[in-house]
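WARN retry 2 of 3 for item q-0093 after timeout on previous attempt; input resubmitted unchanged.
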Amino acid sequence: MQFELRTQVIEPQRKTFQHLIDRNGDRPASRYEEGSIGIQAMTNFHYRPLWGPDKDIYSPDYSVLKLTDPYSFTDPRQFYYAGYVSSRADMHEAFGSTLDYLDKRGMFDRLPEAWKDLFQDVVLPLRHYEGAAQMISANACRFGWGTTTTQCFAYAAFDRIGNAQILSRVGISFAGGTAEALGRAKTDWLEEPAFQELRKATELMLVNQDWGTAMVALDVTDQLIYALLYDCLDEAAINAGAGSYSLVAQHLSGWFTDQRRWFDALYKAWANDPEAGESNRAEIAGAANAALVTAQAALAPIAAKADALVQAGATEALARAVEAVKTKLAGLGVAMS
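OK item q-0093 returned
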């Protein structure tokens, strides 16, 4: 008996779901599109929440920032769950390899004393900022409107707790396998005068009832922090022989480059919305201008502390970062003061 194996092509009766055909035409949809577009619950809500009876449990009115079509924004990275998990597994595997190298070579012990102090007294306390950023992003995921937007917030929330874990793992390694450095960092976050304005600003973002303006404030603060700690100080670390700081900073800087891709696209979607664009630009301007003033004032003592330790030009870098944020948002038509 003989068998003949042949390939038989069976044409699918439908290329994708009907709501995607209605939106994009009768073409095959990507996994991102099928797992992201048209998923937002919009009808048949059972009750209004007791803590907010003026709104449905899911509503576009939890923020002043709105999109006429919530799916006019899509993630440039095209992340759905499987793609996101694979990307972040690779990212943390790369970081683990870096940390193993630093441990095996005793690189933290070889840091110049001033850079040891900078890592302990300036950088490590910000693991608590990352933890707060996770909660702010998770809140935006819960109250946001449109799955393509809220899933970006969800992935960002996972990322922020991952960033906090990166700093925690480095802190444990820095302290020779103990949690001593983490304990000191927590005390500094709660009590050190240089951090109190940033802590206050962070806690105000946590209690902001408008998820959109809270995320704008967080992003503006992020842009200053990452420019200061992981760009300016990274460059200074290379020049000062503090290579282990630079090796850690590259991972956080690389993550922030990825974060910027979808957040900048969201700004553009908000600013260019055909119906809500003008209102959105005004609201972004109000939130961003206020956050920029607050964040610059909050980070000034931290930059001064860094300069006192390593003379890295952090204060000047902070001023440049402020101007860069203004320029970027002004390019979207947002009136920056």
